[in-house]
Amino acid sequence: MTRFDPRPNSIAPMKCGAEQVERGRPVPDALLARAQAHPGQVRIVRRGQAMTMDLRPGRLTIVVDDDGRVIAAYCG
């Protein structure tokens, strides 16, 4: 049986654009529109909100605080 390893694979790094999302700022309008049009590619969740834990390496997940400012962005 193979165990799941949540760490990114160094051979094939995940690329979803998370490195381009600026922390501490509101989510850009372009990403809000993309999240609405393509929820499988981008999801925006509030801190503490329940969400699915399925791994989709190409999906950008943005976590925002109560004021709508980005606190984290990652692939998955």
Radius of gyration: 13 Å
Order of helices and strands: HEEE
Biggest sheet character: 3 strands, mixed
Number of strands: 3
Helix content: 10-25%
CA distance, first residue to last residue = 23 Å
Q: What is the oligomeric state here?
A: single chain
Count of helix runs: 1
Q: What is the percentage of strand-forming residues?
A: 15-25%
- What strand order characterises the main sheet? 1-2-3
Principal-axis shape equals globular
- Whole-number mean pLDDT: 84
Stretches with pLDDT under 50, minimum 5 residues:
none
- Structural class label: alpha+beta
Short description:
This protein has one helix at residues 29-37, and strands at residues 42-46, 60-64, 70-75. With 76 residues, the chain is an alpha+beta fold.
Map the helices and strands:
Elements: H1 29-37, E1 42-46, E2 60-64, E3 70-75
Parallel strand pairs: 1-2
Antiparallel strand pairs: 2-3
